[in-house]
């Protein structure tokens, strides 16, 4: 198994997101996390993305379907149809809503163990 995690400038994400993942043809999982100046925050995003990716892979949810949904959601956000704090994966229409919810649940548990204040963390993520 190969999992490659990199932090990148937020402006270099494929679309407006702080965490992104995909599988390459060789089966390797690639995760991109926006730089936030806090290694714990960046780790939490990566942790979430890895969990979500593996759960989606297990369920046969295609990366292309997730990317298309997320991209459309972000376009709708620009039109004022979603608030700045709404996450695409929380939408009832998201093809990966269950996997996103589970990944968020373990992300919250890990944040607690790391001593991360969830509200401060969430504010940082939202304001990127």
Q: Would you kindly provide a written description of the structure presented here, covering whatever features stand out?
A:
This protein has helices at 39-59, 63-78, 97-114, 118-126, and strands at residues 3-8, 19-23, 29-34. It is an alpha+beta fold. The chain has one domain. The chain has a 3-stranded mixed sheet with strand order 1-3-2, with helices on one face. A hairpin with a 5-residue loop joins strand 2 and strand 3 (29-34). Helix 1 packs antiparallel against helix 3.
Task: Sum this structure up briefly.
With 128 residues, this protein is α+β, with helices and mostly antiparallel strands. The protein contains four helices and three strands.
Name a few traits of the molecule.
single chain, globular, 128 residues, 3-stranded mixed β-sheet
Major sheet: arrangement of strands = 1-3-2
Count the strands? Answer: 3
**Helix fraction by DSSP (H/I, runs of at least 4):** 40-55%
Beta percentage is: 5-15%
Indicate the multimeric state. Answer: single chain
